[in-house]
Structures are given as structure tokens and as C-alpha cells.
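#lab-general

N.A. 3:47 PM
ok so I finally got the sequence cleaned up, no stray characters, all 270 residues accounted for. can someone with queue access submit it? mine expired

B.Y. 3:52 PM
send it over

N.A. 3:53 PM
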Amino acid sequence: MKQELTNLWKDWRLHTIVLAIVLLTETIGTHSFTVGPGVVLLLPMLYAIIIGLGLFFTPLIKEKQSKNAEPLIVLGVTLLIAKIGVIIGPSLPQIIEAGPALLLQEFGNLGTIFIALPVAIMLGLKRESIGMTHSVAREPNVGLIMDKYGFNSPEGRGVMAIYIFGTVFGAVFMGLISGFLATLTPLNPLSFAMASGIGSGSMMAAASGSLVAAFPQMENDILAFAGASNLLSLSTGLYMSIFIGLPLTEKLYDIMTRRKSTSSRVEKGA
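B.Y. 4:20 PM
back already:
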């Protein structure tokens, strides 16, 4: 184990490529453009994933670098969770001031379990569906799954698949859907501002940007509610996943797969 860690830190090719990608993507910066009432946000993380994926199919990245990069993902997520933990304490007064509506909105994120899990099982996914559907699969949730199941587990592959998908398409989707729904439905725009705070800064920025573009007279209120909602999701979302989301997903998965296997045996017997 010690030798493996030594080899990991001495993999200068991997560290050099990662540094080059970071410098390049940060130089490109953040760009956005509007599509109707929606805003599409292009972030450095998106460029980094695309460039890294492209380099994997070149001679620059070998299997050694790919294997060595796996534990670094866990390390990076661990540092992020530590940062979130530091944020939670000073932000408690803001969370209390946000009121019951914002506190209860976290339960809405559990809808991913009841809607997405049955679909995933119907599509034939196994335990990958637990990692994919227990939450919106942002950084704290990735850390939770990595800690409990490991990076190479089915659950780990599931949560990473949704994390990457959300990074590539999440901000685009949130930016478009919030603007379209806010302008097409009679609901208060502040309700969409609250819904945009799911624990992802990029998705919140895209969604609130669309709302501000559609309702410029409410800019301050939209940004305030979106920020408070996102802060709550970052502060309480991980605990919601630990104590409710993940256990509930595992229980429902066991029930659904048991019924599915029972019905299959009955059909074969008939």
C-alpha cells in the first residue's frame, strides 16, 4: 500500500497533465449565452471533463495514469466535504432565518428516489441505481458513496455517472427549464429561485441567471432566495442523504428487486 501511494505521488506525467488542464480551463473562463428565457452556462469544470476524456484516447494518458487518478478523486472530494463542514457552522443563523419553507424544500430532493429508482430498475440497472438515484449526485453525495461503498463498487460507478452527466448537462438543463417554466406557469418566480438551490453552485447560477433575465425587477429577491436555498442544500443535503435518502433508496431497491425476481419466477412457472 505504501509503495502504491509513493508511485502515485511520483506520477509526474499525471500531475503535469492535470495542472495543464486546470490552467487551460481557468484561462478559458466561464461563458454564457441565452436561449429564449433560459441561460446556458459553460464552466471550466465542463471543459476539464471534455479535455480529460479526449486525452484518455491519446498516447499521453496510459492505463497507469488512469488507475492513479482514481484515489485522487476521493481525496479531492474529501477536501471539499471538509470545506462544506467549515461553512455549515457560521451559516446556521442564515439557515434559521430562511424559514420553514426553505427548510422543508430539502425533502423535495427525495423525489429523485421515488421517480428515478423505479425507472432505473426497469431499464435493467442493478446496484448502480442506488448511487445514481439516492440524490442529485453532487460532490458531498459522491463523497458519501465513495466512503460507504468504495470507488470501484457498482454504487460508486452509478454516482460518478450521474455526477459527470450533471456536470455536462445539469447547468444547461437548469438554466433552460427554470426560465421556461417561470415564464409559462403562474407560479411565483421566487418558488423557482428556491428550487434552483440543489447544492450545485453552477446549476444555481444558471437557473437564477435565467430567472433574473426573465424578471429583472426581482433580481435581488431571486438571488437571495436561490443563495439561501443552495446554502441549505449544501448544509443539510449530506445529512439528509446519510440518514434518509441512502437508507430509503437501499430499502426500496431491495423491495423492488425482490418483487421483480418473484414475478419473473411466477411467469416462468406459468
